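Internal tracking record. Fields below are filled automatically when a chain is submitted to the structure queue. Please do not edit lines marked as system-generated. If the sequence contains nonstandard residues, flag them in the REMARKS field before resubmitting.
Queue: standard
Priority: normal
Entity type: single polypeptide chain
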Amino acid sequence: MPEKLIVIGGGTAGTSVALHVRKKAPDMDITIFTKDKHTAYSPCGIPFVLSGQVSSFEELIMHDVQNYKDQCIDVQTNTEVTAIDLPSKSIIANGKQFCYDKLVIATGSLSLIPQIPGTDKKGVYILRSLDDGQKVKDAMNNAKKAVIVGAGPTGLEIATAFIKVGIDTTVVEKAPYVLPCMLDPDMASPVQNHLEDLGVKVMTGFSLGSINGSDNVEFVTIGKEVVTADLVILCTGTMPSTCLSRQAGIGVGETEGIKVDSAMRVAENVYAAGDCVEVMNCITNRPCLSPRGSSAVMQAKVVAENVCGGSMVFGPVLHPTICLVGDLQVGSVGVTSNVAKNAELTPVEGKAKGLTRSSYYPEAKKINIKLLFFEKRLIGAQVISEEGAKERIDALSLVIKSGMTAQQMLMAETCYAPPMSAIVDVLTLALEDVIDL
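SYSTEM-GENERATED OUTPUT FOLLOWS
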């Protein structure tokens, strides 16, 4: 009889595990259980459907159920797993028992809902699924004023989507500046200025007090201010979905994510991957969460290899992140100054502003870069521009992993052509700002 693999969760991690295992083990019996009615879609694309830049939510679906059937992968949609029994190597779903030889837990994350009055009113939404996206899209047709709670990447992408279609939008963020998990205050300032230039009202340093109205939201309180709103989007972060794992006796770490070893193993023949998992931070050497699609894909490759008898490991993470805020590409990797200081790593900063192309070449864009060093090695980077931010963040991620010093970075060869770069790249200017390292 072929081995049976059960995957709990139909998101990026779960479906990626199934597809990679299928390539390596053509005869393995693979079943995915998911509460959702869709599989393998990109939730990161939802703001761009709301803005009209992507025409429909269907375009966000990368693989439908039939695609998995064609690869002999059974997908049980609208099916919630209610129990895991490790001793009997089985799960319970829809009241039925299903046995496994190998199990992968990829239960993802849950939205954090503020503990304030009014979150249950009509017109208040979270954005976790395509169904959520469709509800917001429908609500936008009659919305005039919106409040977005949380100035992380998703919140700001939704804000710019709303402004694009003519909805008066306010963003409220309890931190003193936008994108607090990605940027330092000095780098966040031009992003906030850009949002305000687009017409978004930004209120930092405030928590949402209450959501008010009869059945439908009519206004919210922010500090002492009352803000009219007929649409509220809660982008207040996520937490690992681990209730099922806890009930099975599976341990969680200090971040509340499932504890795994370097092979992403929870117990014998049981693995976990994705937003529900605790991993290690490459810079601080402390446990952390990495709720990113790119992390989920990498973890899925490790799990698939090991499910099939391999010995692959998943290393510490750097959290390379990129988002689009209006016309600005905003990227970061490694740690911010606050995270570094909290980890007792006092950083040395190198900053520079420049252009993405030769100054005389048409359409050269401004670019702003900040580098953080500790003991002569890069531990963090932040880049803001209308072009080229992702490529620099990807390169700087490799630099951090390689352990290059500032001097070695400065002496690295770079390419030059007027339509694509300045003869002295802004990265070089930022390095020269700390060359005494």
